[in-house]
Specification:
Blueprint: H1 2-13, H2 21-26, E1 32-38, H3 45-49, H4 58-64, E2 65-72, H5 80-89, H6 93-96, E3 102-105, E4 110-113, H7 136-139, H8 156-163, E5 170-174, H9 177-184, E6 189-194, E7 199-201, H10 212-218, E8 230-231, E9 263-264, H11 273-278, H12 282-297, E10 307-313, H13 315-323, H14 328-351, E11 357-362, H15 371-376, E12 382-383, H16 388-391, H17 393-402, E13 409-413, E14 416-419, H18 421-426, H19 431-443, E15 448-453, H20 454-459, H21 466-474, E16 483-487, E17 491-492, E18 495-496, E19 499-500, H22 510-513, E20 514-520, E21 527-529, E22 533-534, H23 538-546
Parallel strand pairs: 1-10, 1-11, 2-21, 2-22, 5-6, 5-10, 12-17
Antiparallel strand pairs: 2-20, 3-4, 6-7, 8-9, 11-20, 13-14, 14-16, 15-16, 18-19
Helix pairs in contact: 5-9, 12-14, 13-14, 17-19
């Protein structure tokens, strides 16, 4: 009797998901893991648009999955590579090392684009012309080579390779190189869309020559098919919430594209043609079409070995930057994305069976509303011009104290300020003193909420707050800058090399950290979970579901609602 009570007490003390572990362990693994990441899908946008979604897309995931409605990134710099890598590794930037889309390499004195690697050039390309890329971080890359070597932790896809018997097939696909590479990890293969050549490409890190099916897809005219067509509204105009804002003055008027529907793609010869495709739902449609062909030709999910396919959809991010998340364009884009996801899931169902597939959907970050839109509602918001640091009181104070001011700053790669180590040494100054004084002066500028020196982060001289914790999660001793800047809510740098974007992201405020997380697969009970969770929880939860170890740097916890 005593023994029975003792066993019962132990059983009652166990977490709920551990009860029945033996039966769970005997269940066959899914044949396919499909990880979908929607770039800039803020956490409220699914529910905001749900009544206009059809069957089989977002609705399928909500009706068949565990939907965490209050999931947040816990790092401060909510950018694309940062969020993707956090989802892939289950850890903070301080460990996985991808501290920003762009950081300053002190050794070379040049900007470093997160996945650039001169040792692995693009296959069959002489170089990527970034002149039509609206993302300045991409243009700042000093090499057309690409690899995942800068990621300092293993990824969930790496752990699938390590932990699942047989030879799992691992692939990542996206318009953005960083969206594909981060999810494919070190052991998979990544394909992304090159705007300069209008095709999906990869680098010599992954292979020596393209498979025949890739050459066939690129030569089949998928990209050319959009020439001389236009992006039109999917549904009846009166069904759109933001119909009357189609020509809002705060939207970006991209050359040849305009602010009003329909948006023309123009002729194939137009130098902006492929960029315009990515500023519309066409970018996601091409990504899904390529992913479907990959799945068929690489025979994903066709044996007992669990395969992995990551698909990162980028158009929501590009559309959001140009028009804002509360715009007619963003609204229509999500309706069309819903259909694109529905088509992808239907293809997976036919090829593998959704009953054999573990589907996970999340986002790398959210987005702020456009300052002009917020101002029209009476909410303070504005753009920040970093050039004002040169001429304002901050410059005068630093000049008075150190004899130099702007010259002290070697580089500003948002959100980091990097100091000129050589000049500081020549002037006989102490870097810790300079960085703290610069932070003091920056904090006085309108639009800056916090400016925190790395020296204070190292020594723990920072008050413990949610914002300082988020900044600390960002801190990597070699890659982070000397001062971290946090702008006031709804303030951001909107200038992208002369092009002013409507909206942005990259802050620790909830509109940037809040993202959806949905898990759907065999044994998962459909439910909405409103408790707050973190995106570092996603990778270890996926690992627990697949019964493999979590990525090497994982700091998240297993979400018990996902486990059968």
């Amino acid at each position: 009797m005593v023994g029975s009570c003792s066993k019962l007490a132990i059983l009652c003390a166990l977490p709920a998901w551990m009860i029945g572990t033996s039966a769970f362990a005997d269940e066959p693994l899914p044949r396919l893991v499909l990880q979908i990441t929607v770039d800039q899908l803020r956490g409220d946008l699914i529910d905001r648009n749900l009544k206009h979604f059809g069957e089989g897309g977002f609705r399928y995931l909500l009706e068949n999955g565990a939907y965490f409605t209050d999931a947040h990134h816990r790092h401060a710099n909510t950018e694309t590579i940062v969020g993707h890598t956090t989802l892939a590794t289950g850890t903070d930037l301080a460990i996985h090392g991808m501290v920003a889309n762009l950081w300053f390499d002190r050794a070379t004195g040049t900007p470093y684009y997160n996945v650039q690697d001169p040792n692995y050039p693009l296959l069959a390309q002489s170089g990527v012309d970034q002149s039509t890329e609206i993302d300045p971080t991409q243009r700042a890359a000093t090499s057309d080579g690409r690899s995942p070597n800068a990621i300092l932790s293993s990824t969930l896809s790496d752990e699938i390779t390590i932990g699942i018997a047989g030879k799992p097939k691992i692939f990542g696909v996206s318009v953005k190189d960083r969206g594909a590479i981060s999810m494919a990890g070190h052991t998979g293969t990544a394909y992304w869309f090159s705007k300069s050549v209008g095709s999906f490409v990869t680098s010599s890190y992954y292979m020596d020559t393209y498979p025949d099916w890739v050459n066939a897809w690129n030569g089949a005219g998928h990209v050319d098919a959009y020439a001389d067509t236009e992006w039109t509204l999917k549904d009846t105009p009166t069904t759109y919430r933001f119909l009357e804002m189609d020509d809002a003055e705060w939207e970006t008027d991209f050359p040849g594209y305009g602010r009003v529907f329909p948006h023309p793609f123009g002729p194939r010869a137009n130098k902006y043609y492929t960029t315009l495709l990515t500023l519309s739902p066409a970018g996601d449609e091409l990504t899904a079409a390529f992913a479907k062909t990959l799945l068929d030709n690489e025979m994903h999910g066709q044996d007992e070995v669990t395969d992995y396919l990551a698909v990162s959809f980028s158009s929501t991010d590009y559309v959001g930057h140009i028009f804002g998340p509360s715009s007619l364009e963003a609204e229509d884009n999500l309706r069309r994305l819903d259909r694109t996801i529905a088509g992808l899931l239907a293809h997976v169902d036919q090829a593998v069976g959704l009953e054999n597939t573990f589907v996970v959907l999340a986002a790398d970050h959210g987005a702020t509303e456009v300052p002009g839109y917020l101002n029209s509602l009476g909410i303070p918001a504005s753009y920040f011009n970093f050039d004002n640091v040169d001429t304002g009181p901050a410059a005068e104070a630093l000049k008075s104290e150190f004899g130099v001011a702007r010259e002290l700053i070697a580089n500003f790669s948002q959100p980091y300020v990097y100091l000129d180590d050589k000049l500081i040494a020549e002037k006989g100054l102490e870097k810790a003193v300079v960085s703290r004084r610069l932070a003091d002066e920056l904090r006085k500028m309108p639009g800056i909420a916090y400016a925190i020196s790395s020296d204070d982060l190292r020594s723990g001289r920072v008050a413990k707050t949610p914002v300082s914790d988020a900044v600390l999660a960002n801190f990597h001793s070699e890659r982070s800058g000397d001062v971290y800047i946090v702008f006031e809510p709804h303030w951001f740098v909107g200038d992208f090399d002369g092009l002013t974007v409507a909206s942005h992201h990259g802050s620790p405020w909830t509109y940037d950290t809040h993202v959806p997380m949905i898990f759907s697969g065999p044994g998962i009970t459909p439910k909405r979970i409103a408790r707050r969770v973190e995106t570092v929880d996603l990778a270890p939860t996926m690992a627990a579901y697949l019964r493999i170890k979590a990525p090497s740097g994982s700091l998240g916890k297993v979400l018990q609602e996902v486990l059968p």
